[in-house]
Design goal:
Elements: E1 2-12, E2 15-25, E3 29-32, H1 39-46, H2 49-52, H3 64-73, E4 79-86, E5 92-99, E6 107-112, H4 121-136, E7 141-147, H5 151-159, E8 163-172, E9 177-187, H6 188-197, H7 200-203
Antiparallel strand pairs: 1-2, 2-3, 3-4, 4-5, 5-6, 7-9, 8-9
Helix pairs in contact: 1-3
The structure holds coenzyme A.
Amino acid sequence: MTALETILECRGSGVTTECSIPVLETERLVLRAPRFEDARAIAGVANDRRIAEMTANLPHPYAEKDAENWITNAWQGEDHPFLITSKTDGALIGATGFVMPEIGDPEIGYWVGIAHWGKGYATEAARAVVDHLFMNHAAKSIAARARVVNPASRRVIEKCGFQWVGAGLTRSRLLASSVPVDKFQLDRSVWSSLKAWRDPILRRSAPKIVIGELG
Ligand SMILES: CC(C)(COP(=O)(O)OP(=O)(O)OC[C@H]1O[C@@H](n2cnc3c(N)ncnc32)[C@H](O)[C@@H]1OP(=O)(O)O)[C@@H](O)C(=O)NCCC(=O)NCCS
């Protein structure tokens, strides 16, 4: 992963400020902040019930307006989302990111467009977000959760080195009810061991931090 620091205009409360939003680069992907011109493409990829029903907050149907609302609030509070885009042609693949609560561990999340499932993109993107959190934030551990009926997400979480820490309930916006979830945690010490171990499989998407200019 290469972290390219970019200065973007941050929108909020009618005041325009500057803030630094990282752009994360992996072997095949560029993870960057969503922009308003992405709204139509986001709606085109996200508007699928099979994606929404596995996430806590994704609306369904998902309209361009939903994407615009999401983009307006991105990086303003606890939510720190990235679009997952192709390094080759910039095409939208999905989204990932983390929630950074005032108290407690950051939590990662992700979704990938149906056409791109099964190619390792979610794992590659999630690993980049994990590396970013441990390298550039003081997080002692990172949380993740998946619906118990979501083995693909569970597998992604496990491939990132997370360990199961318990079960719980999460509110599903689509189902308008609480659904059972498995909760996972990745401690900094475990992550450090994984990185130091240099397993050849992990190394395929292992990060290399380079600070550079974007565009
Ligand atoms: C979960 C999701 C992000 C996975 O994206 P992806 O890019 O296909 O994930 P990856 O290819 O990196 O890895 C998926 C893994 O799950 C495995 N998998 C997929 N379907 C599975 C199933 N039904 N049972 C068991 N394992 C499954 C794949 O084989 C792969 O593991 P492997 O590399 O060991 O073979 C994608 O399916 C998605 O967006 N789902 C809807 C939204 C969602 O679930 N978000 C997460 C909320 S917690």
